Amino acid sequence: MDRSGRRYHHGDLPAALIAAGLELARAGGPEAVSLREVTRSAGVTANAAYRHFADRHALVLAVAARAEQHLALAMEDRMALADADADPASRAGRRLRALGLAYIGFAVEEPGWFRLAFHAGAGAGPPDTAPYRLLIAALDDLVAVGVLSAGGRPNAAWACWSAVHGFAELATQGPLRGHPAAEVRELAEYVVDTAVHGVIARPEPGR
Amino acid sequence: MDRSGRRYHHGDLPAALIAAGLELARAGGPEAVSLREVTRSAGVTANAAYRHFADRHALVLAVAARAEQHLALAMEDRMALADADADPASRAGRRLRALGLAYIGFAVEEPGWFRLAFHAGAGAGPPDTAPYRLLIAALDDLVAVGVLSAGGRPNAAWACWSAVHGFAELATQGPLRGHPAAEVRELAEYVVDTAVHGVIARPEPGR
DNA sequence: AAGTAATGTGCACACTGTACACATTCGCGG
DNA sequence: CCGCGAATGTGTACAGTGTGCACATTACTT
User: Fold this and answer.
1) Would the Cβ of B47 be found within 7 angstroms of any atom in strand D?
2) Is B167:A158 a contact under the CB 8 Å cutoff?
3) Which residues in chain B have Cβ-Cβ distances shorter than 8 Å to A123?
4) Minimum Cα–Cα distance from B206: chain A residue
């Protein structure tokens, strides 16, 4: 290996590995972040990674956490644009809509990161991720405004996440993959609107 | 290799390989169906598979087609149970509901096959799979009955599939994985009901 | 029955993750 | 300032993967 000019110690290998992993995952998704390729990108031997990560999976998890941060960032940005509305009720609705569209938009624009971020939430318990917290906060706004009952919020969260995540999968890995962006965007708006409408118009679990 | 008692020619290797792949995928999903493991299960050399499949991916696709058939079967079975209803309108709604719950139920009971089946629909064009045709047929029933406009059917299809597929992902690979079956089933019913309600109560694309 | 196409084997190569022993370097106590 | 232990990176090795190529064996056609 040509390591001319490089110091024996890297300085901040973990960060370098995660950065390289992010780049690889961006193009090829989770399976593209291989130990050997990542360490190669960082100009280091494959085994060097084991000083900082237990195994490949741990590395992937760390990279996934970064991807998840990107997703949360994108959601926050898009939601901020929906803040200009006088009526609080309609404002809360528009924010939830923006949240869903941002989730789908991120999936379409960064499919590699999206797949990685979803597989990151490996913990089986109730999720404590930034994107999830944003969803809960948006639904809490709806409750505060009165268009959603407090008891219906948990169910609403799963319904919204399901619709939006499902569409993201269809658009990035399913039958909608490769369709014109404009068509996908229009469908996304319909699906998100339907989900939002379903949640605020049908707050109580009906059996 | 111990091939005592075996003929040089297998008889029907493709079928044997697909059967072995199906078994492996059932436990470990798509990535578990490896060329070497599949051929090993069939008692044959790894390269023998290349006489019948172009590469590993082609084999996986063939196995995925079988998994997709199982999914369609499960959907048909469950839908048949919803046929006992006098009122045609409510019958159509119940059938769509049964369809969605069957999709989710299959995902929960056979997560390996489910993941495989979804990744099978690799074709970017409009899907022509059995499960998709069942969905379209169910929506056509709603149109015939008058609770859904003919023009709103395509959008409704994507909305239903999104909600149901998204929930299946959350339940099998996402934060809902490992949750008690009863809890998952109740959530599934809520999500499916919300989707069905959203589709029949909001048939026109609202922009 | 003979020859050709179909099918399965063996060997090889590049690639992956991961152990293990070793080399190098950093930082702290004297 | 020195030196020594801890942290970090290297080298080598092994099992496993997909896949190409030459060869062996069997089935089928004429």
Assistant:
1) yes
2) yes
3) 175
4) A190
Q: What would the pLDDT profile of A115-148 be if each residue is shown by its tens digit?
A: 999 987 666 667 889 999 999 999 999 999 999 9
Q: How many CB atoms lie within 10 A of CB B58?
A: 13
> CA B109, CA B103: separation in Å to the nearest integer?
10
Full-model pTM: 0.93
pLDDT digits (tens, 9 = 90+) for B21-48: 999 999 999 999 999 999 999 999 999 9
Percent of chain A with pLDDT strictly greater than 90: 80
Q: Which residues of B touch A (CB under 8 A)?
A: 118-119, 121, 123-127, 132, 155, 158-159, 161-170, 173-179, 186-187, 189-191, 193-195, 197-199, 201-202, 205-207
pLDDT tens for B60-71 read 999 999 999 999
Mean pLDDT of chain B: 91
User: Cβ separation of A158 and B176 shorter than 8 Å?
Assistant: yes
The residue that minimises its CA distance to C1' of C24 is: A8
Q: Kindly give the interhelix angle for A153-172 and B153-172, rounded to the nearest 10 degrees.
A: 110
Tokens of B82: 């919803």
Using the beta-carbon criterion (under 8 Å), do B124 and A179 form an inter-chain contact? yes
